[in-house]
Structures are given as structure tokens and as C-alpha cells.
Design a protein that fits this description.
The chain is an alpha/beta fold. It is built from 16 helices and 14 strands. A 6-stranded parallel sheet has the order 3-2-1-4-5-6, with helices on both faces. It has a 6-stranded parallel sheet with strand order 11-10-9-12-13-14. Strands 7-8 form a two-stranded parallel sheet. Helix 1 crosses helix 3, helix 5 (109-121) runs parallel beside helix 6 and helix 11 (281-294) runs antiparallel to helix 12. The chain binds uridine-5'-diphosphate-xylopyranose (UDX) (2 copies).
């Protein structure tokens, strides 16, 4: 079977970039990305490429090359499903808020809704690919829904047949395009080797065959959850050690380097910070916790749950120590938050540590000035659930009625006037070049810098006259 038309349901952080790269690498395939969110689709179609709904380095160049040629964004879900030989399901799977498994299990209502739409509108033979990260055995749910459709059309002219594959995404935001172009591996899980080959042939256009791993469906689903759980576990491990460093005089950067030089451990994902964020890590670990509890494995559940607990603790411990260093009270104090995204090079704030830390500080009565090069005021409003006060103009002094409130400042240089503390929460490049001497001159004394990402040069900051706290720095 030769794939000519692909439809991807879900134009989000995963669906958008993944389909852009497939369209770019396979110009003989038509790629249609559909979404129920009309506003998001309009942004994907905007003639101003700065208005794309997500920010990813390298994305807009691909959109410029392929959009309206073999890459299209629309809300024509029924038509595009009908036309497709292969359908990717790339919709969101948030953690359930109520009912059985609330707070841990993934809410599969969108995935189920998509499977039902595919069952209804698909024609002939269709390969359905799970792209969303899903609990193990979700492919079973999709297959059951599609089977019903196979049975009911068996004897008609409009006979429908399906194959279901799992093809989890390993891209990390901020480096998504590069991760898609040069993946460590592509994982395809499935039962029918012909269907697996069809998908493998697409990736073979740019990925060497030895990097395309073929597994059964359930291994593929579990491998994705486990990858994220292992990465997150390393971060919680190193963050737990950061606290020991601060008590003992050790330095977490030196410890990370020393242990990362052991080739059995490896150097990646050993940067201590304010805790992991992003849409995947917490959700995927909680999925493993839920599955383990469901299958009667409480020890396994509690092992993985501790990774999330440690992450929450790391965030609140930073908030607490900021309050402590600032004489136990934040009321009438101006605090500058540098970075609101969960990591650099993305506008995504899902599970961002900056959210929890900002909320803690607002609760303590601080007046926050928030800067982030890519996150909008509307997004911060949504995340903090507190309306911003009017944007600062020209770094005006903050007045006391701003207690427990926040303002967005778009110009980095205008953030610091009369501030008591600066908290570095996202490792954006522009924060690495801050002229601390100048900043010190503008701040109220004693002035503090809290560097949770190890991006400052400590001797420069201290030489400028500022007090510096760095993550995992015991000196
Ligand atoms: C992805 C994966 O799909 C998710 O499982 C993984 O854990 C995180 O990454 P992501 O692309 O980041 O999700 O999600 P999001 O940016 O929210 O995009 C999902 C899109 O699907 C949204 O634009 C939403 O409107 C759309 N959607 C949702 C549909 O088009 N149809 C639906 O029925 C539900
Ligand atoms: C992650 C996985 O890396 C990716 O394979 C999967 O498909 C989706 O989830 P993402 O969440 O986009 O990707 O970003 P990632 O680079 O993994 O960072 C996650 C969080 O961990 C960020 O908050 C980051 O700041 C933090 N982190 C990462 C650390 O605190 N220390 C590190 O050493 C690395």
C-alpha cells in the first residue's frame, strides 16, 4: 500500500511540527492537519509567520516552504479523514480531573472521540497511528471501536478495514524540529508487518533503517511512558542531591559532571533546576502509577510516585527559601521573575515550575514583575488565575497596592528598578548576558539574585554587589 494522503487530528505541539517535517521530507505525500479549534487553525494559516500558534526554532521556515503545497491546516475533519490512507491521532490526553483514577489516569475522551470519527468517516483501508502519549493498551480501545465499523460494513460496497499502530513521539519542545529530523530512534508498534512497513517507508525518507525499531503494540506504548519516566527520574534524583549540596558545601554542577562522566550513567538530564515541567513528564509518570495500582503493584506505584513528589517539593522548597532570605516576608517587595516557560525556546507553560513558584510568592504578598520573551500576558493570566495589573511602562516604581499582584514587562532592561530580588526560572539565552552591575544600581538594597538554572557567572554577580543563591551551591 502506497501512502498518498495523511491526515493528522490535532494541530498542537506534537501534531503541528511532526506533520511539518513529514511534509517537508515527503513531498509526494499530501499532509492535512485538522483540529476542532478554529482559532488555532487560523493561526497556523496566518500570513504572518510570527503568529503561528507555537514557537519552535526552525518551524516557520518549514511552514513557509510547505504550507498550501503539500501541507494544509483546516477544520474539515470529516472530509480529510475520508480522504486519508493514514491517520495520526495527536490530540491531548490530560490527567483526569474527576471519577475513577482522578489525578493520575489520562482522560481518553478525546482519543475515543477521534476513533469514533475515524470509524464513521474513513473509507476503504486506513492505517490509524497513535501519536499521542497514551496509557498502555489504549490501542486496544481504538481497535475495538474500529472493529465495530469493520463488522458493520463487511458486506457493503463501502467496506472499511483498519490497522492500528503505535508511533510515540520523542521530540522535546524547543528542539522539536531537530529531534524530528535526526531522531535517536523511531518506534513503531503494531501487529500487521505490512502496515508497519507503510509507516516505516515514510520515515526511511530521512531516517536510517537501523534507527527504526519495530515492536509489538503494547511494548511501544509502554516504552514511551518509560522513557519519559526515566528522564524525569534523573531530574528528581539530581534535584534531591542539590538539596544535600546546599547543606554540605558540595556543588551540584561539579557532582553532575563527575557522575555524568561515567559512561554507564551519561551526562544528559543531570542539570539540577527548579523541577521538571512540560505536558508529558508528570502525566506519564502518573499514568504508570495508576497502571501499577490497577494491576496490584503498590510498591511499583509508590516508587514512581516519589519522583513526582520530589519534583513538587523542589519547587516549593525554592519558594520557601526565597521568603526566608528576604527576612520572612514578601509584602511590599518587588520580585522580578525571569522566564515563565517550562524551558527555553518554547512558549509552552504547561506544568512550568515558574507557575507554582510565582503562585507561592504572590500568596506571600509579593509584587511580581514577570518577563518571558515568548509567553504572552494572556497565557500568564490564565495560568496564575489572577488578572495582571496594567503593564509597567519604563520601569516605574511599584506601589504598595500591588501586593499579591503581577505585571508583565516586555523589555528586560525595564524590569529591575527598585526590585528586591530577581529569580531566574527559565534558561533563556538573553538572561545569560545580563549586566549585573547595571542591575544592582537599579535595585533596592539588600538585593538578591536566585539562580535556579545555573546560568549566571557567580563571581560576576557577587562582584556587582548582589547576594546570590544558586541551586545546589553549598558555598
Ligand atoms: C501531545 C500529545 O498528543 C499528548 O498525548 C502528549 O502527552 C503531549 O503532547 P500536544 O500536541 O502537546 O499533545 O497537545 P496540544 O498542543 O494540546 O494539541 C492537541 C490538539 O488537539 C489541540 O489543538 C486540540 O484542539 C486538538 N483536538 C483535541 C482535536 O482536534 N480534536 C479533539 O477531539 C480533541
Ligand atoms: C519530554 C521528553 O524529553 C520527550 O522525549 C518527550 O517526547 C516529551 O517530553 P519536553 O517536556 O518537551 O520533552 O522537554 P525536556 O527537554 O525533556 O524537558 C522537560 C523538563 O525537564 C523541563 O522543565 C526542563 O527544564 C527539565 N530538565 C531537563 C531539567 O530540569 N534538567 C535537565 O537536565 C533536563
Amino acid at each position: 500500500m502506497q501512502i498518498k494522503n495523511i491526515c493528522c487530528i490535532g494541530a498542537g505541539y506534537v501534531g503541528g511540527p511532526t506533520m511539518a517535517v513529514i511534509a517537508d521530507k515527503c513531498q509526494n505525500i499530501n499532509v492535512d492537519v485538522v483540529d476542532i479549534d478554529l482559532k488555532r487553525i487560523q493561526k497556523w494559516n496566518s500570513s504572518n509567520l510570527e503568529e503561528l500558534p507555537i514557537y519552535e526554532p526552525g518551524l516557520k521556515e518549514i511552514i513557509q516552504r510547505c504550507r498550501d503545497k503539500n501541507l494544509k491546516f483546516s477544520t474539515s475533519i470529516k472530509e480529510k479523514i475520508n480522504n486519508a490512507d493514514m491517520i495520526f491521532i495527536s490530540v491531548n490526553t490530560p490527567t483526569k480531573k474527576k471519577g475513577f483514577g482522578a489525578g493520575k489516569a489520562s482522560d481518553l475522551k478525546w482519543v475515543e472521540a477521534c476513533a469514533r470519527q475515524v470509524a464513521l468517516y474513513a473509507s476503504n483501508h486506513t492505517i490509524v497511528v497513535e501519536k499521542s502519549t497514551l496509557p498502555v493498551r489504549t490501542a486496544g480501545v481504538i481497535k475495538e471501536i474500529l472493529n465495530e465499523s469493520e463488522i458493520s460494513t463487511k458486506n457493503s460496497n463501502l467496506k472499511k478495514t483498519f490497522d492500528v499502530l503505535s508511533n510515540p513521539e520523542f521530540l522535546a519542545e524547543g528542539s522539536a524540529i531537530n529531534d524530528l529530523i535526526s531522531p535517536d530512534r523511531v518506534l513503531i508498534g503494531g501487529e500487521n508487518p505490512n502496515a508497519i512497513d507503510c509507516l516505516a517507508q515514510i520515515y526511511q525518507k530521512w531516517v536510517p533503517d537501523e534507527k527504526i525499531l519495530r515492536t509489538n503494540l503494547w511494548s511501544s506504548e509502554l516504552a514511551k511512558l518509560t522513557s519519559n519516566a526515566f528522564l524525569a527520574q534523573r531530574i528528581s534524583s539530581i534535584n534531591s542531591i542539590s538539596a544535600i549540596c546546599e547543606e554540605t558545601g558540595a556543588d551540584i554542577r561539579e557532582v553532575s559532571k563527575a557522575i555524568g562522566s561515567d559512561s554507564r550513567i551519561g551526562s544528559k538530564f543531570l542539570n539540577s533546576g527548579p523541577g521538571f515541567g512540560g505536558s508529558c513528564f508528570k502525566k506519564d509518570i502518573l499514568n504508570i502509577v495508576y497502571l501499577s495500582e490497577f494491576f496490584g503493584l503498590p510498591e511499583v506505584a509508590s516508587f514512581w510516585e516519589s519522583v513526582v513528589r520530589l519534583n513538587d517539593w523542589q519547587q516549593h522548597r525554592i519558594s520557601k527559601l526565597i521568603v526566608r532570605k528576604l527576612f520572612g516576608t514578601l509584602s511590599n517587595k518587588k520580585i522580578v521573575i525571569l522566564g515563565f516557560a517550562f524551558k527555553a525556546n518554547t512558549n509552552d507553560t504547561r506544568e512550568s515550575p515558574a507557575k507554582n513558584i510565582s503562585k507561592d510568592l504572590l500568596e506571600e504578598g509579593a509584587s511580581l514583575v514577570i518577563h518571558d520573551p515568548k509567553v504572552s500576558s494572556d497565557q500568564i493570566n490564565f495560568d496564575l488565575k489572577i488578572e495582571s495589573t496594567k503593564p509597567l511602562t519604563g520601569g516605574k516604581n511599584i506601589s504598595f497596592d500591588l501586593e499579591g499582584k503581577w505585571q508583565k514587562e516586555n523589555n528586560l532592561e525595564d524590569c529591575f528598578k527598585d526590585a528586591d530580588a530577581v529569580i531566574l526560572l527559565t534558561e533563556w539565552d538573553e538572561y545569560k548576558n545580563i549586566k549585573w552591575e547595571k542591575v544592582f544600581g537599579q535595585m533596592r538594597k539588600p538585593s538578591w539574585v536566585f539562580d535556579t538554572r545555573s546560568i549566571t557567572n557567580p563571581s560576576e554577580v557577587r562582584k556587582a554587589g548582589l547576594n546570590l543563591w544558586r541551586i545546589g551551591d553549598g558555598l
